[in-house]
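Project outcomes to date are best conveyed with an example. Our students and postdoctoral researchers have been running inverse folding experiments weekly, and each run begins with a structure described purely in tokens. The record below, which covers 517 residues, was selected by the lab manager from last quarter's runs and is presented without edits.
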């Protein structure tokens, strides 16, 4: 049966509307049908299946790939930085930007919902300027019930996790905390998560910036501290115990008393045995083990598990090569001590790595502080030093699923001019673009215009802006700020003469120079 629609229905009067406001009366007019036990059982069963389906599809949903993120110049987007963590331990990562990532132990699951063990790769990248945001291909349009907005960004990041090339997920009752260093000190930003299934930004909460005051560490002290850690690590490596290996019951071995202080690589162990090495097995004289020797000299060869044993007494010397081994009763204890020592080396290396990263981040901040101080000194004849108190604003994200997060403020299109826009190359030939991006560098906002709105192109001629686009044949088109600031204020129509870059550099950093020379 064909459904009929009425577009010109008679409007109800206010009196008629009022009679329908008694919802209890309307509800009582509805016939309540009794559901049979059989039907209720079916419904309950279906509900249970639905719940199981939701749990099962949790990881499938996170793993679903979409085309909502489409880099305009594939291969030139910002690369991930990789960090390797142990899921059984709490981890804090400190990036050069100053961003801190806190990952609690046992918070990661594989695609089957099983807790991950062993090493996990954390991939992380930040988008802090409009060039990286543009090259990422991440949509910067936010839509809600009040309309369409464009994001003014105070920082965006993407975080993922992998083990052996397979995606890893955050356990439903766990979270990861990301404290990202802010670009602005303003407090009007919100935080959002990009849903790659729907292609929409989801509002999370209003951002509450944290102000952290820290004293810059003295450079010489930090360098000395890092050098001290280096020396400790080298000492640990030089004196690390020999890796325990089991004895071979088919090969002769000798037990020798020695001073452990003379052999740091053997110091943690007890019940050490010297097993005859392959190069001495053919000529080994077992009767020599019954001889009473006055002295035994143990010499390690090339820091390997190879020792020369020199037995001596008046008028006789006997030499044999051997390796250090452990019998079945001592091997487990030796292995435990070896593992503990190796962990101590790793802990020192991690401590040094964190210190280097923190120092690097503070050094960058200090350099920026010095530059800012230099500029202000030119105006106010003041001097600031890198040892002064540093003010740092952090944006905190509670990450319960991997993906893309941002701290942004929704903006309407700029005000000032509305023009009918066309785009051409230096020769005046029209260029075909499906969308154009107006990058307001001053406010860190990326406005996106689709071809259908080029005849209603809104801009602020007084802002510091650049216009970017990628042509249908894959070339980068740029309308530089020097041209932008010369836009005629009374223009109603304008052809933007774009610089076309058909041959692009191979790196993200070099392409960014073309976008904002």
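After processing, the design step wrote out the following sequence:
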């Amino acid at each position: 049966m064909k459904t009929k629609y009425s577009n010109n229905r008679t409007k109800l009067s206010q009196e008629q509307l009022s009679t329908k406001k008694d919802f209890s009366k309307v509800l009582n007019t509805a016939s309540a049908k009794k559901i049979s036990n059989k039907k209720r059982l079916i419904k309950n069963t279906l509900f249970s299946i639905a719940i199981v389906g939701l749990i099962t599809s949790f990881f499938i949903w996170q793993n679903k790939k979409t085309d909502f993120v489409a880099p305009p110049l594939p291969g030139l987007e910002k690369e991930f930085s990789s960090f390797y963590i142990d899921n059984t331990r709490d981890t804090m990562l400190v990036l050069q930007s100053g961003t801190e990532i806190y990952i609690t132990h046992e918070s990661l699951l594989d695609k089957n919902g099983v807790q991950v063990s062993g090493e996990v790769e954390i991939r992380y990248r930040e988008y802090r300027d409009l060039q990286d945001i543009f090259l990422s291909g991440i949509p910067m349009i936010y839509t809600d019930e009040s309309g369409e907005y464009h994001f003014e960004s105070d920082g965006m990041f993407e975080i993922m996790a992998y083990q052996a090339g397979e995606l890893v997920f955050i356990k439903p009752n766990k979270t990861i905390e990301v404290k990202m260093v802010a670009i602005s000190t303003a407090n009007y930003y919100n935080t959002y998560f990009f849903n790659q299934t729907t292609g929409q930004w989801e509002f999370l909460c209003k951002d509450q910036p944290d102000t952290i005051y820290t004293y810059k560490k003295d450079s010489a002290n930090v360098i000395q501290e890092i050098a001290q850690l280096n020396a400790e690590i080298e000492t640990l490596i030089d004196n690390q115990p020999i890796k325990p290996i089991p004895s071979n019951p088919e090969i002769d071995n000798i037990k020798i008393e020695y001073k452990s202080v003379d052999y740091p690589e053997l110091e943690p162990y007890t019940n050490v045995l010297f097993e005859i090495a392959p190069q001495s097995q053919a000529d080994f004289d077992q009767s020599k083990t019954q001889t009473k020797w006055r002295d035994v000299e143990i010499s390690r060869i090339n820091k390997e598990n190879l020792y020369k044993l020199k037995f001596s007494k008046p008028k006789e010397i006997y030499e044999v090569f051997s390796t250090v081994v452990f019998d079945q009763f001592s091997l487990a204890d030796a292995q435990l001590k070896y593992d503990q020592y190796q962990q101590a080396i790793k802990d020192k290396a991690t401590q040094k790595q964190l210190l280097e990263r923190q120092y690097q981040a503070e050094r960058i901040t200090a350099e920026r502080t010095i530059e800012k101080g230099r500029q202000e000194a030119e105006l106010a004849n003041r001097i600031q030093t890198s040892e002064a108190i540093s003010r740092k604003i952090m944006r905190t994200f509670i990450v319960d699923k991997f993906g893309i997060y941002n701290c942004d403020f929704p903006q309407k299109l700029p005000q000032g001019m509305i023009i009918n826009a066309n785009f051409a190359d230096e020769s005046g030939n029209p260029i075909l673009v499906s969308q154009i991006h107006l990058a307001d560098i001053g406010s860190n906002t990326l406005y996106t215009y689709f071809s259908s709105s080029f005849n209603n192109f809104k801009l602020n001629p007084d802002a510091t802006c650049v216009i970017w686009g990628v042509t249908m044949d894959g070339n980068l088109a740029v309308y530089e700020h020097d041209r932008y600031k010369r836009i005629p204020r009374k223009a109603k129509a304008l052809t933007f003469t774009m610089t076309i870059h058909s041959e692009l550099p191979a790196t993200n950093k070099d392409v960014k120079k073309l976008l904002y020379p």
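The two ends are 65 Å apart (CA to CA). The first strand starts at residue 81 and ends at 86. The training component of this project remains on track.
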